[in-house]
Amino acid sequence: KTQVLSKEIILNNIPTLDKLKIQSMLKHLTQTRDEFIESFNKNNKIGTEDYDQFQKLYDFNPLLIKPFISYEEELYLPIPQLMYWAITEGFYHKICDEEGKKFTEDFGKNVFEKYIEKIIKTNEKIKIFPEFKYNKNNDLSPDFILVKGDEMIFLEAKAAKTIIQMRNLHLDCYKQEIKKAFGKAVKQCVKKEQLYLNGKMKESKDKSIRLPENIKKIYYLVVVLEDFNFPTTELFLSQISDFLSEDNLTFNKEKLL
To answer: d(Cα 146, Cα 195) in Å, to the nearest integer?
Structure first.
């Protein structure tokens, strides 16, 4: 039997939080039944020629953003587990949509990269060079350079988020997302590898940074905030190669980790 909720029930069962904060939270997490239907139909293009009923598994669920539904002055929580998703990833996507690209870039630089750095520092056998400026133009190195022995990894972190059309497996959107999530990062790695091999990165603004010179192999590692579910198929690799060719760059797929 479905339990009917109300604001009063919720407020009375969370005594440790201020009631105004709870009410504010509920406001952001609640949608009406009609709003749910409208959002579902709009985001999944229901009733249009773009909707593919055989891809229903990938339909966008509005409860991921607002898990509570209000109907006839009562609240319903159809899938309680989605509340935890909504107050974490859901809020992140909501802020991204409202604040735009700048927030995504700031989050990637100030939060995501710090998280990555904390993880890679647990391996004491790897020497880590976080992003640094070099040469007269103040160009930036990769987000991280990892060195072990005579091998080096250029790591680029991307906080890009997937677009809703990806859930419907549109080929054009798939290609676009490959370029956004991986193509740009790989292009950065290729360009920066050339600069490193030409000795340009030796001109670091921080004199304490000394990159090793006895490197025999260089690899590329792209770390994304979201799971784009891109298998390294020939289509995936060809899209990256095509993207690099726009700048007359070549891509060795063996370098991509």
So the answer is: 16
Separation of alpha carbons 70 and 76, rounded Å: 6
Q: Are 158 and 228 in contact (CB under 8 A)?
A: no
Residue whose token pair is 């029930």: 9
pLDDT of res. 120: 92
* Strands, E assignment, 73-192: 74-76, 127-130, 133-134, 139-140, 144-148, 151-158
60: tokens are 């966008």
Q: Which helix (H) or strand (E) holds 221?
A: strand 217-224
All residues at 6 or more sequence positions from 228 whose CB lies less than 8 Å from its CB, including other chains: 162, 166, 177, 181, 182
User: How does residue 119 score in pLDDT terms, banded at 50, 70 and 90?
Assistant: very high
DSSP assigned state of 226: S
Place of tokens 């579910």: 229
What is the pairing mode between strands 133-134 and 217-224? unpaired
Reading the block at residue 61, the tokens are 């669920």
Q: Are 158 and 227 in contact (CB under 8 A)?
A: no
Residue 148 phi, psi (nearest 5) = -145, 115
- pLDDT, tens digit, 9 for 90 and up, residues 41-53: 887 777 777 666 6
Range from 30-39, 82-91, 138-147 carrying the lowest mean pLDDT:
82-91
> Coil, strand or helix: which one is 97?
helix
Higher pLDDT, 252 or 50: 252
Q: How far, in Å, CA of 96 to CA of 107, rounded?
A: 10
Structure tokens at 166: 């990806």
DSSP 8-class letter at 4: P
